[in-house]
């Protein structure tokens, strides 16, 4: 992809998001400015993820240069009108996976694009259904350490996801953490109009 002199700054510490950019062959610089990821209790679903990506972009607003494109992203799991972010501890992992067992939920990723005083945001929603997961299977997964850094306490790309997810509707890469096809299109669109 010809970036036409643009520098892409991926403001995400997620190794999965970085890997997607590497696979696409899009040159990028990683720069994460930590922010407190909070949201008003009145927000629901997509609005939560969009609020958080705007928070993540805010520290870059005063320092962004011409021909820089800052990309922020946030993924949440939404089930029963509740937001399941990254679990704080093993007890929370257990509670989340017990709730997800034998049920459906939504995985929502919002992606923000900050460039030359402009802000755009896109989002993707995927439906995921788990089959029944036993308490022992949950404990075994917790022992791997993998669920602690993931929204909803699971990774679809982990063996746990492969074994227990019975169906998905929507973008697979969104469930991993980035709706790649939509992001790629948006980057092309932004570069074309600048």
What does this protein structure show overall?
- The chain is α/β, with parallel strands linked by helices.
- It has one domain: Maf protein.
- The chain is 35% helix and 26% strand.
- Strands 1, 2, 3, 4, 5, 6 and 7 form a seven-stranded mixed sheet that branches.
- Strand 3 (68-79) and strand 4 form a beta hairpin.
- Helix 3 crosses helix 4.
- It is elongated, with a radius of gyration of 17 Å.
- The two termini are 15 Å apart.
Instruction: Kindly report the oligomeric state of this protein.
Output: single chain
Binned strand content: 25-35%
Helix- and strand-based class?
alpha/beta
Fraction of residues in helix: 25-40%
The poorly predicted ranges are none
Question: What does the radius of gyration come to?
Answer: 17 Å
Shape: elongated
SSE series = EHEHEEHEEHHEHH
**Could you give the count of β-strands?**
7
Question: What characteristics describe this protein?
Answer:
single chain, 194 residues, alpha/beta, Maf protein, seven-stranded mixed beta sheet, 35% helix
What is the element layout, followed by pairings?
Elements: E1 7-10, H1 15-24, E2 29-30, H2 46-57, E3 68-79, E4 82-84, H3 90-100, E5 104-115, E6 118-130, H4 135-144, H5 159-164, E7 165-169, H6 172-176, H7 180-193
Parallel strand pairs: 1-2, 1-3
Antiparallel strand pairs: 3-4, 3-5, 5-6, 6-7
């Amino acid at each position: 992809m010809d970036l036409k002199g643009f520098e892409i700054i991926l403001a995400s510490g997620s190794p999965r998001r970085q890997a997607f950019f590497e696979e696409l062959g899009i040159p990028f610089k990683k720069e994460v400015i930590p922010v407190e990821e909070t949201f008003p209790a009145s927000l629901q679903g997509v609005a939560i993820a969009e609020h958080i990506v705007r928070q993540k972009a805010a520290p870059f607003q005063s320092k962004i240069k011409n021909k820089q494109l800052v990309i922020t992203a946030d993924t949440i799991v939404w089930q029963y009108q509740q937001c399941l972010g990254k679990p704080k501890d093993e007890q929370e992992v257990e509670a989340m996976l017990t709730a997800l067992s034998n049920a459906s939920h939504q995985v929502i990723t919002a992606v923000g694009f900050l460039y030359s005083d402009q802000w755009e945001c896109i989002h993707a929603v995927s439906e995921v259904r788990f089959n029944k997961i036993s308490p022992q299977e949950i404990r075994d997964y917790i022992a791997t350490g993998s669920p602690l850094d993931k929204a909803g306490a699971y990774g679809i790309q982990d063996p746990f996801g492969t074994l227990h997810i019975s169906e998905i509707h929507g973008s697979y890469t969104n469930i991993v953490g980035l709706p790649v096809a939509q992001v790629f299109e948006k980057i092309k669109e932004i570069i074309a109009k600048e």
